[in-house]
Design goal:
Elements (H helix, E strand, L loop, with lengths): L15 H7 L22 E5 L3 E2 L11 H14 L5 E7 L2 E6 L1 H9 L4 E7 L3 H15 L4 H13 L5 H8 L3 H9 L5 H8 L5 H7 L5 H14 L3 H22 L4 H18 L4 E4 L5 E4 L5 H11 L4
Parallel strand pairs: 2-4, 3-5
Antiparallel strand pairs: 1-5, 3-4, 6-7
Helix pairs in contact: 2-3, 4-5, 5-7, 6-7, 9-11
Length: about 300
């Protein structure tokens, strides 16, 4: 009696390891779901012609350091591929890359005609999740690429924030910090992507609500090469100045003001976005939670455990 495990269809959303483990395999001499005869189990290592492998359309990385690719290429010439790439079979002599784009590019650069690979079976949504998680965990993505990958996992793979944290091995606060970067003006996002400013700079700027003020501080950072600590000081001064103006316009009990600021800070941290809490002399007020997109709104609703 065969000990072959049945195909599992519910792997999506349980992490890269689960997806790879649960992917369909083919026994020696059998056929896979495309009707292609397989000489080796899909979980074994195979040598595949590089010309038969097409790139992954779900690749989250948009930039590859050419010098690093050349160094990897030289290493592959000497040592070969240490870690096989992972592909899915599309037809008899056609494969699609799941993970390992740098290794594939470096192999081509080295002039090699074949590459070692694992063959897996995955649908488009599984391909997307595997590619995103593999890159987040194994590649040195810049902060914006990580943030975009997190956003795609939330919106396109239908993951909730807590599930996303489990998949990528990060707590919800860390995930929120990356997602908040996508609310910055495009010029600042581009500078962060191009490493003109650091994640620390961006996290300080995001605490300012006004986009014009954000851009003004960003330009000052670039022009004067300000440290993260200096930027944090500038942001505190700006926020304190705004608070003093509001205080002059609407006098509020000092103790009550401190409590409202503490509440506002806690809510902002909890929701991963700047939350506004206002109260008048009669203890009437409002709590405002801004959102920048439908997916951002759904993220907030998930935290509130509210379904539409």
């Amino acid at each position: 009696m065969s000990n072959k495990k049945p195909i599992k269809r519910n792997a999506l959303g349980r992490g890269l390891g689960a997806l790879l483990e649960d992917s369909n395999t083919t026994s020696a001499g059998g056929k896979d779901e495309l009707g292609v005869v397989a000489a080796l189990p899909a979980s074994s290592i195979n040598e595949i012609p590089v010309e038969e492998i097409e790139t992954n359309p779900f690749q989250p990385r948009t930039f590859f350091d050419q010098e690093a690719l050349r160094e990897l290429s030289e290493s592959i010439k000497v040592q070969g591929i240490i870690q096989p790439i992972t592909v899915r079979r599309l037809s008899k002599n056609k494969y699609q890359l799941i993970s390992g784009e740098r290794r594939l590019q470096a192999t081509k650069l080295a002039g090699l005609s074949t590459i070692t690979a694992y063959i897996r079976t995955a649908d488009d949504q599984q391909m997307l999740e595997m590619a995103l998680i593999e890159n987040i965990q194994r590649e040195n993505l810049n902060a914006i690429e990580i943030a975009l990958s997190y956003q795609r996992l939330l919106s396109e793979c239908n993951l909730k924030q807590e599930e996303l944290g489990d998949r990528v091995g990060k707590n919800r606060t860390t995930v929120n910090n990356y997602l908040r970067l996508l609310k910055l003006p495009p010029d600042i996002q581009a500078a962060l992507r191009d490493q003109k400013i650091s994640m620390g700079h961006a996290r300080a700027i995001i605490n300012i609500e006004n986009a014009d003020q954000q851009l003004a501080i960003f330009k000052k950072i670039v022009a004067e090469e300000l440290s993260v600590r200096k930027v944090e000081e500038l942001v505190r001064e700006l926020l304190n100045g705004s608070s003093k103006k509001e205080e002059k316009a609407t006098p509020v009990n000092k103790e009550k003001e401190v409590e409202l600021q503490q509440l506002q800070a806690k809510l902002s941290s909890h929701f991963g976005t700047k939350v506004f809490v206002k109260s008048d002399e009669k203890d009437k007020g409002e709590i405002k939670i801004p959102f920048v997109s439908v997916s951002d709104l759904n993220r907030i609703l998930d935290i509130l455990e509210v379904s539409l």
